Amino acid sequence: MIRKRKSRRRLSRRTLLQKPRIRRLSNHPNPLVSIIIPAMNERATLPAVLYQASQVHPCSEIIVVANGSTDGTAELAAKWGARVISFTEPLGHDVGRRFGAEISKGEVLLFIDGDMVIPAKELRPFVNTIISGVDVALNGYSGPVEKQKTHPVVLAKHVLNVFLSRSNLKGASMTAVPHALSRRGFEIIGSKALEIPPLAYAMAVSRGLNVQVVHTVPVGKLNPVRQRVGKGKQDPLATLVAGDHLEALHWLVKEHGQRGGFGDLGRKRDRVRG
After folding, report:
1. Which of 37, 59, 84, 137 lies 20 to 30 angstroms, CA to CA, from 25?
2. Parallel, antiparallel or unpaired: strands 136-139 and 179-182
3. Residue ranges of the Glycosyltransferase 2-like domain (predicted)?
């Protein structure tokens, strides 16, 4: 009788979401790595997210910023042993990163999300790159650009990198997780800027931090499926992220002049002004 060879199983999102048994996390008293996880009503994915986070580095702490959760997210995170900051009201998109960073102790700040299960092996390159001396370690995922109509968020990220004279980074930015930040980088950028990732990113590049793409995690495939926006209607998240990029460009103009630091080749415009 011929036996069928078992095919090698791929690590699918369903496999990652299989709930591990609750095993209390051990936060290191003097962590090298702080893993920051904003979460709003993420009880379904949080156990798997916490388990993967716990496998990233032996000298780490895990911080969950539960904001506006009504499904027991904060209580579940505490049961697992994570450090928990809880807010009764929703903070808004990305604001949780700031509060998690402000209480962090590590020299490496790794940012992930509570609704996206990313294997630990995909997170370690970001941590290791910061340990080696880089200030900002970015995900190389740039989003689809081969389509006839490019998504406005993808376009905004590419445009910002052109303005920053870092077109080599394509669509990489601190908007997408995972990404990591050194303690030095965090202190130079400041915590408040983390609420607006493109602004924090523009500050990091403009202030001379070592910013590198280090690893690519295809978060477009890992993202939970969101309800499609009806035809003719604007996607509120896309509008928010586009506005964040405009705020970053506005900061660049204020910081580097009305041309954002780009030269004018000696034009004598004052000679022709009436």
Report:
1. 137
2. antiparallel
3. 34-138
> Across-strand partners of 179?
111
DSSP 42-62: -TTTHHHHHHHHHTS-SSEEE
Q: Which domain holds residue 195?
A: 139-176+187-220+235-256
Identify the residue whose tokens are 């008293």: 29
- Three-state SS for 37? strand
Calpha distance 213→81 (Å, rounded): 32
Helix and strand numbers (H, E) in the chain are 10, 7
Q: How many domains, in total, are found in the chain?
A: 2
| pLDDT digit string, tens, across residues 17-66 | 555 665 788 999 999 999 999 999 999 999 999 999 999 999 999 999 99
Whether residue 225 lies inside any domain: the answer is no
Task: Kindly state whether residue 202 falls inside one of the protein's structural domains.
Answer: yes
**CATH code of residue 66:** 3.90.550.10
In sequence order, the 6+-apart residues with CB closer than 8 A to the CB of 20 are 47, 48, 51
Judgement on whether residues 111 and 72 belong to the same structural domain of the protein: yes
